[in-house]
Amino acid sequence: MKEKNNIDIIDAGDDKPIVTRKDIVDISIGKHEGKIGGITRMTSEDGQFVYLDFNVMVIDVEVPKGSDIPVLRMGFPLNLSSKSGLGVLMQKAGFDISKKNSYSINDFRKVFLNRKIVFLVDEQKTDKGTFTNILRDTVKFV
Fold it and tell me: What is the pLDDT of residues 91-106, one digit of tens each?
């Protein structure tokens, strides 16, 4: 059944689960180990900024049975120089950014996917809530 604004409505008689409760894994402030599990090219809501979003699986925390490994995101504007956040991260990964002038999303995936890193985590309080963040300057490849 559809509402007038095209939103699907689940029939009351439909017994198929649509969501499963999973415990949220707390990530303490401090040092953690993770693995880069995904890289996505993103555009800000207003369309003014393009950046790469790195999905980092936090692998050093205890995950209750049935829960997912926690994932933190780390974003970098698509500015590439020896001093930009993305350029510094690439150099930390052992990549010589002077070899090419342009890079595809697949180039970034080759450099970063499944790489283990250590990093510090902090909390940021905003008007939308409290969020756990990776402190980008602390990222080191292991």
Answer: 999 988 898 888 898 9
For the chain, the DSSP string reads: -B-TTS-B---TT--S-S----PPPP--SEEEEEEEEEEEEEE-TTSS-EEEEEEEEE-SS---TTPPPPEEEEEEES--SSSSHHHHHHHHTT--GGG-S---HHHHHHHHTT-EEEEEEEEEEETTEEEEEE-GGG-EE-
CATH number of domain containing 81: 2.40.50
Would residue 129 count as lying in a domain? yes
> Does the residue 131 lie in any domain?
yes
Query: Within a domain: residue 21?
Result: no
Say what the pTM is.
0.79
